[in-house]
Design brief:
This protein is an alpha+beta fold and about 450 residues long. It has 3 domains: about 80-105 and about 265-450, no CATH class; about 115-135 and about 215-250, no CATH class; about 140-210, SH3 type barrels. About 20% of the residues lie in helices and about 40% in strands.
Length: about 450
């Protein structure tokens, strides 16, 4: 069992802390204390509130202030459902955190550029310079004479050049044999199956056949020292790669540690359980755009056409960066244009190598049940509330002018809209009714708690 200790003393807002990791200094008041020390970012979560403190190792990269872009209003034209540029999605409370995360993500990897890529180049040079190819003759050119049976009824092959000799084999029409001797004016000496026989000239013809030379490309070791060169190269690259990997880990490593009391641990367990309930919905879609339509006859009576895409990935725990260290599971949602990571106190957004973050107090999630005319396969957990026709008439019945007019179901799906004042605008739909209700309610409760506190 490891031993740990932590002592601190101070006066007023100033405090000195002693622990196994070293000495740190902090300044602030309860609920808003910033820590200067060897560790990374810390968030303290308890039933009494939330405090946020982080390591400050130097000047923080600044994120340009961008004027928030309002969510586009619904018009008669096609309405794209998408968040604003990721550069403006971060709220004020998360700017320092995102600056550090973006800085880490923007650095080049020493391991890749000075380790892996040179190793690949070295192995490629060894491969292309150590082996050669040459042409090897597998069958030389040959000339031979064949005997072909011309009698429609076939012919007997005799043991000797005599019609009264024993029959060795019965040859069929157009069957061929190798000619061994043609000096006899009446008989042709042929070979077959390691045997020798004779065919009467009246029942066969001979013809000359030429066989071209056959060759194949063969690979051979052109550099006899290739094994030694490969071994020497690996002895250099393996320690270098190990060293570069440690260097990358030190440069890229970012720690986000959560201190939770027992009560908040139980609450956080619900956080993961609620996300699990949401992720188990049979189908989860992301809305891409919506457009109104007046062609009710050909849309089953729908007044709006929705273009949707299945959510590309749902994970109970996924890290935003390879060397991101945390002591909690991070639920992850991969949309077509963005990746969403749900930290205990904020939502992290990723697009390529760029990040943004919004505290839950600044995230607004609204959800309601919607009737959706489903023209695809109905998910197993969907609730069918009604049916309509693929082509309808004015009274709502089937339009009989269309052949093969079938009934299609109307399903009760749950639709959730995620918004923020900074420009987040995403719409997610679940086939299971209310699949995201508990998860969105939990985020809303955390946001309400944050709104009542000062978070620095």
């Amino acid at each position: 069992m490891g031993l740990s200790f932590r002592k601190s003393f101070g006066s007023g807002p100033f405090r000195v802390n002693f622990s196994k990791s070293g000495v740190s200094y902090s300044v602030g008041v309860k609920g808003a204390r910033v820590n200067f020390g060897p560790k990374g970012t810390y968030v303290s979560l308890s039933s009494h509130g939330i405090s946020y403190r982080r390591k400050i190792s130097g000047p923080q990269a600044s994120i340009p202030q961008v004027q928030p872009q309002l969510t586009p209003a619904f018009t008669a034209e096609t309405h794209n459902i998408a968040s604003a540029s990721i550069g403006q999605l971060t709220d004020t409370d998360s700017r320092d955190f995102i600056a550090e995360l973006t800085k880490k993500a923007g650095q080049i990897s020493y391991l890749n550029w000075f380790g892996i890529f040179p190793l690949i180049a070295f192995l490629s040079v060894i491969l292309f310079t150590s082996f050669g190819s040459r042409t090897q003759v597998t069958h030389p050119a040959t000339d031979s004479t064949l005997v072909r049976v011309t009698n429609f009824e076939g012919v007997n092959i005799r043991a000797t050049a005599d019609a009264r000799s024993a029959v060795l084999k019965a040859a069929s029409y157009r069957q061929t044999f190798n000619l061994l001797d043609s000096s006899d004016p009446k008989w042709l000496k042929v070979g077959f199956n390691d045997s020798i026989g004779y065919i009467n000239r009246r029942f066969a013809d001979s013809e000359h056949v030429h066989h071209d030379e056959e060759s194949a490309e063969q690979t051979f070791l052109a550099n006899p020292y290739a094994a030694y060169e490969l071994s020497a190269g690996l002895l250099i690259f393996i320690p270098l790669i190990i060293k570069l990997k440690k260097s990358d880990k030190k440069r890229f490593e970012m720690e986000l540690h959560y201190d939770m009391d027992e009560q908040f641990k139980q609450i956080y367990q619900q956080f993961n359980n609620h996300f699990g309930t949401f992720s188990r919905s049979a189908r989860i879609w992301q809305y891409l755009n919506a457009s109104p339509t007046n062609d009710y006859k050909r849309t089953g009576g729908a007044g709006k056409l929705i273009k949707r895409s299945p959510v590309r990935g749902i994970y109970g725990n996924r890290l935003p960066l390879p060397y991101f260290i945390t002591n909690v599971a991070i639920p992850h949602l991969k949309l077509s244009n963005l990746e969403l990571y749900f930290l205990p106190e904020r939502m992290l957004i990723k697009q390529g190598g760029t990040f943004a973050a919004v505290f839950y107090k600044n995230l607004y999630i609204t959800g309601y049940t919607t009737r959706f005319i489903e023209d695809e396969m109905v998910p197993a957990d969907a609730q069918i509330v009604d049916r309509t026709w693929r082509f309808v008439n004015r009274s709502g019945g089937p339009d009989r002018r269309f052949n093969n007019n079938r009934q299609i179901p109307i399903c009760a799906y749950s639709e959730y809209t995620l918004r923020s004042d900074t420009g987040i605008y995403e719409v997610i739909t679940t086939s299971k009714k209310g699949a995201m209700d508990t998860f969105s309610d939990f985020l809303r409760q955390i946001g309400d708690l944050q709104a009542r506190m000062a978070i620095s």
